[in-house]
Amino acid sequence: MDEFPDPVSDSVYLALQRFLYREASLLDAHRYDDWFTLLAPGVKYRITVPSVRDAAAGTVRVDIVVEDHAALKTRVTQLGNPRLTRAENPQTLMRRSVTNIEAFELGGERLLVKSHLLAFRGPRAGNASAGFYSAGRQDILSVSGDGFLILEREVSLDHAVLEGGILSTLL
Fold first, then answer.
1. Could you tell me which of 164, 170, 158 has the C-alpha nearest to residue 48?
2. Per residue in 66-123, pLDDT tens?
C-alpha cells in the first residue's frame, strides 16, 4: 500500500471537490480563459500514455504533452479562437467527470490531490464517432486566498493509442 501524507480536513476536501467540479465545468463550457486563471504562474502540465514493450519489463509512462504557463496560455488562445485551430473547429463536445478524489496535506500551503477523470468526447461534424478519455490525475495545488491554484498536473491516460491520433483538449 502506498504511503500518503495526512489527509486534508473535511472542509478542505469539500472545497477541493467544488474546485475540481468547477474546473471541469469551465472546460466543458469552453471557458478557457476562466480555466487559465486557476493555474499558478509556474504551473507544470503533463499528459502521459502507457507504453508496454515487454510484459516482464512492466509499463513505462511516455510524455505526450509537457507544457508550462506560457505554452498553456498559447493553447488557451488557440482553443478559444476557431480561426487559430483546425483540430477544434468546430469545437469538440466534451463532458468531464471527476471522481475518486483523494487529498493530502503536503505542508507549506500545498496539497496533493489524486483523482480519476472520465471525459466523454461527442461526435463532431463529419465524424460520427464519439469516444472517451480515461485517466488518473495527480495535482499539486496551492492554497490561494479562499481558493486553490494548480501548481502541477500529471494526467496519466489509460490509453496506449489515442483514437484519431491526436489529443486537442485540456484534461
1. 158
2. 999 999 999 899 888 766 666 555 667 889 999 999 999 998 899 999 999 999 887 6
The pair phi, psi for residue 11, each rounded to 5°, is -70, -40
**What is d(CA 69, CA 142) in angstroms, rounded to the nearest whole number?**
15
Q: Determine the pLDDT at residue 84.
A: 60
Q: Is residue 16 within 8 Å of residue 111, measured between CB atoms?
A: yes
Q: Which residue has the cell 502506498?
A: 2
Q: Diameter of the chain by CA atoms?
A: 50
Domains of the chain, CATH where assigned = 10-163 (3.10.450.50)
Could you tell me if 8 and 111 are in contact, meaning their C-beta atoms sit under 8 angstroms apart?
Answer: yes
